[in-house]
Amino acid sequence: MTLEVVAFWALSVVLVGSALAVVLGKNLFHSVLWLALALTGTAGIFLLLDAEFLAGVQILLYAGGVVTVVVFAIVVTERLIGTQLSHTSRHLIRGAAAAVVFLMLVLRGISHTALPLERIPAEGDLTRAIGGSTLTTFVLPFELLAVLLLVALLGASYFARPEE
Amino acid sequence: MGLQAYLTLAAVVFAIGLFGVMTRRNTVGILLGIELMLNAVNINLVAFSRFNVDVSGMVLTLFAICITVAEVSLGLALVILLFRSRRTALADHIDWLKG
Predict the structure, then answer these.
(1) Residues of the domain holding A137
(2) How far is A144 from chain B (nearest CA, A)?
(3) What's the total number of domains in chain A?
(4) Is A91 helix (H, G, I), strand (E, B) or coil?
């Protein structure tokens, strides 16, 4: 077994295990911490796919930013009602059935398609290629993204403003 | 590892996220499920991009991550707003539009 296979299986176990803990846990706060582990595991998968820059972005924005914001929101809302948020599940069997049916359909599609087994070694710096592509081919979506982030910032602060 | 292994892993994570979205009562819990699903799609994009030697998929992943961050901040602002007006975070209680 090569190192890549070992790393892939280890990361898969971490990712699937923590994802299950996110959806099955009884404590909302713990679920968020498990989500942080799942997102870090995904960063590991990105590293395995030679996307070092995306792994960095994933850890900075997702595991750093999103998890902090969600924890902050839980703390604020729990303060508002003064008790711990309930974090129960319902329709467990129906939900599991739908998820399994979806998974079967996708796996069927994957197994019936001819997919490359080996990847071509990357030539040059992928981070440099991402940067170049972002500022040439995808410059319009890139600028639109800046507007979107501004709109989200304004909208979120408008929603969360103190009551008059 | 072939492309198939990465796609299978992403499908499993997506199905787990779907299960979470459908079974959670709490709106924050549903949001966590959506995060898992978006994450699985990002794995797919990066895997396809790497195996087809086309950097566009990675740029798209970068955009997807940024949009997700905006979505989470707005979603949580809505949750806090609902808490102020209705004192609840359960999706079943948010039924103003019900006739």
Answers:
(1) 124-164
(2) 10
(3) 2
(4) coil
